[in-house]
Amino acid sequence: MATTALQIPVRLTLAGPMRAHSDVEVRLMLGHDMETGFRHNSSGVRVPKNILETLTVKLNQTLIFEATLGTGMSANPMLFFPLTLPPEGGTLVVTWMDDQGRSGSTRKLLVYE
Question: Which residues of 43-84 form beta strands (DSSP E)?
Fold first, then answer.
């Protein structure tokens, strides 16, 4: 079964000195409603469940962060985690999948000072 694309607004930033071997904080915000399926709209109609379920972050093909999300996550989830920058630089790739099998990704090239 082929997955369909889920394009959402994403903010991916690194806080800290951008040089080899530096410790930085990865800051990731995903623009997603994270509907639990329990809410009703103003007309009383149930809003269908629609959540991000999995999130992975890879640096140069190596898994560095993985999360299983659920209905307890707020809309527009924000995640923070530490990262030590590799000497060779590289690319961060963030991939997500929702509960309907749709997926998407974004990438950030590591550019040192």
Answer: 52-59, 62-68, 78-84
